[in-house]
UniProtKB/TrEMBL annotation:
Originating organism: Nesterenkonia sphaerica
Keyword terms, alphabetized: Membrane, Transmembrane, Transmembrane helix
Protein name (Swiss-Prot/TrEMBL): DUF456 domain-containing protein
Matches recorded under InterPro entries: DUF456
TM region positions: 12-31, 37-68, 89-122, 142-169
Lineage summary: Bacteria, Bacillati, Actinomycetota, Actinomycetes, Micrococcales
Domain of life: Bacteria
Amino acid sequence: MLESTAAETVATLVAGIVLIAGLVSVVVPVLPGSLLVIVALLVWAVLLGGPTVWAVSLAGVMLALLGWSASTVLTGRVLRRESIPRGPILVALAAGLVGLIVLPPLGLFLGFALGLFCAEYFRRERDWRAAGSSSLQALRAVGIGLLVEFFCAGVAVSLFVIGAVIHLVF
């Protein structure tokens, strides 16, 4: 636990910056965003201590875990329902990374969508309607999962802000 108010303020500011990086990483997956949020909240709680900080941190960690797992479950359920194996998803991820390098940050999403469609097109024996339908369902699932994860991580960061103000001011 930190002893001075200045050290607590610096630790809180650094944690806030890492939390913002985590939020950005949920949308632009350069780093694992929810994991970054969880680690930042736990390190902040260990450094500052106190009941308010721990309560806020644990609530934020639970929200980030909920969003992260809900995103994974929602996306996985649709991918199984549409019978999309891991191969097209890996092709889509590779195409998304290439797109990120070629046209940052929009290229990530365009590359992922195009890679998924192309992989599904060849997997479904060049049936563009079936490939388009399954790709659209998969993209919708990924989008909904991303929104759920971002919302939960955003609420966790909001709790951090409230907890930081309470801890540092009162």
